[in-house]
Amino acid sequence: MIQQITKGIKISVETNYNGTNYRGNKLYHLFSYTITIENTSLDIVKLTDRFWTIYDSLNGTEIVSGEGVVGQTPTLYPNQKYTYNSGCFLASNLGAMKGFYTMINLETFEQFKVFIPTFQLTTPVLSN
Q1: Which H, E and C letters describe the chain, residue by residue?
Q2: Nearest to 15 by CA among 124, 119, 128
Q3: CB-based burial, 27-66: b 16+ in 10 Å, e otherwise
Q4: Are 117 and 98 in contact (CB under 8 A)?
Q5: How far apart, in whole angstroms, are the C-alpha atoms of residue 91 and residue 28?
Q6: Would you identify the CATH topology of the domain 2-127?
Q7: Alpha-carbon distance 45 to 128, whole Å?
Q8: Under 8 Å CB-to-CB from 110, ≥6 apart: which residues?
Q9: Cβ contact 32:73 at 8 Å
Q10: What is the pLDDT of residue 124?
Q11: What is the pLDDT of residue 126?
C-alpha cells in the first residue's frame, strides 16, 4: 500500500492486476485500484475535483480530470474515511498513475490540492 498526507488528508492506494480484455480489436491490460481518503485534520473538507496523469509505456500519457470521484463529491469530517474503487486500461504491461484531488475546507472555504502518490501498474510477470 502506498500512502501520502497533504494538509491532514491521507491518501492510501492499493492496486490489482485484473488480466487482459479486448476493447474493439485491441488487447489491453486491466488494472484496478482502491483509494482510501482519510481526514486526519480537525477541519470538515469536501472533495470537489480530481486530476490524474496516467502513464502507459506503450501509449504515452493520458490526462483525466473532472468533478468528484466515481460520481460522488464526498464530505469528510475529522477522522472520517471514504473509500472507492476504479480502474484503467493500459496497452502495455507497465504503467503508473499520479494526480491530485481539489478539496475545499467547508469552514474557511479555502480550496487546496491533496496529492495522490505515484503508484505503479505492473503485470505479475514484471513483479517477480
Answers
A1: CEEEEECCEEEEEEEEEEEEEEECCEEEEEEEEEEEEEECCCCCEEEEEEEEEEEECCCEEEEEEEECECCECCEECCCCEEEEEEEEEECCCEEEEEEEEEEEECCCCCEEEEEEEEEEEECHHHHC
A2: 119
A3: ebbbbebebebbbebebebebebbebbbbbeeeeeeeeee
A4: yes
A5: 5
A6: Immunoglobulin-like (2.60.40)
A7: 40
A8: 104
A9: no
A10: 87
A11: 56
Supply φ then ψ for residue 124, to 5 degrees.
-55, -35
Is the pLDDT at 94 greater than 90? The verdict is yes
Residue 119 grid cell: 503508484
Work out the pLDDT band at 127, boundaries 50, 70, 90: low
State the residue for C-alpha cell 501509449. Answer: 59
Q: How are beta strands 9-23 and 111-122 bridged, if at all?
A: unpaired
pTM: 0.92
8 Å CB contact between 81 and 36: yes
Measure the CA–CA gap between 84 and 105, rounded to whole angstroms. Answer: 21
